[in-house]
Amino acid sequence: MTTTYEDAKQQLLDAMLTHVPFDGWSETSFRAAIEECGMDDVLVRAICPRGAVDLALTFHARGDAVMADRLKTEDLGDIKFRDRIAAAVRFRLQAVPDKELVRRGMTMFSLPSHAADGARAVWQTCDLIWDTLGDTSDDVNWYTKRATLSGVYSSTLLFWLGDDSPGNQKTWEFLDRRIDNVMQFEKLKRQVRDNPLFRPFLAVPNWLAGQVKAPAKTHGTLPGFLTPRK
């Protein structure tokens, strides 16, 4: 049977996950995974040019895929949309087999050399959540939805890492509060927008916002890494 680059990358990732809790997403863990898999160095560097960083991002993408699959199979049709968002964030965190893998990843992505990779990974997670839930916005709302959810997701992730409550119940309560805060802010924005006293002041910002288009969809990207829509 032919082994593809993606198959080999997943094999390397599986081998590396046993070392990450002890040595982090490091060259040490990466070399141990290579040795266990018995792969040629040239092939490995072709698959993962940046070594452990590439496998950390592959691990993140694996969790995203698990979340998306669960969102598609769970029956969420009868709950409020804000609860669907909460469920998506919960499913994403529950896709992690070991918190230490994420904790070690955050240590690596806090480094200046990898900070953009970490931010992009969070953005892509939130982009996938909105897409899977059926978001079709193509104006400034495309950005604001993902930016807002990135803030909710990131803060919930940090809380979850330190949560030792049964079933992470405190984390889900924290998540509900964060989403409630967002919904209150959105309600305030609508009230301001619908108030006739503010309409003259909002005419230019609203016109500018109407000129903004979401990027052509290939995969979620961060502002600054966008492909303009033609």
Automatic annotation (TrEMBL):
InterPro entries, A to Z: COQ9_C, Ubiq_biosynth_COQ9
Keywords recorded for this protein, A-Z: Lipid-binding, Transit peptide, Ubiquinone, Ubiquinone biosynthesis
Pathway(s): Cofactor biosynthesis; ubiquinone biosynthesis
One Pfam short name: COQ9
Domain COQ9 C-terminal: 116-186
Lineage: Bacteria, Pseudomonadati, Pseudomonadota, Alphaproteobacteria, Rhodobacterales
GO BP terms in the entry: ubiquinone biosynthetic process
A GO term, aspect molecular function: lipid binding
Protein family according to the UniProt entry: Belongs to the COQ9 family.
Protein's UniProt name: Ubiquinone biosynthesis protein COQ9
Function of the molecule: Membrane-associated protein that warps the membrane surface to access and bind aromatic isoprenes with high specificity, including ubiquinone (CoQ) isoprene intermediates and presents them directly to COQ7, therefore facilitating the COQ7-mediated hydroxylase step. Participates in the biosynthesis of coenzyme Q, also named ubiquinone, an essential lipid-soluble electron transporter for aerobic cellular respiration.
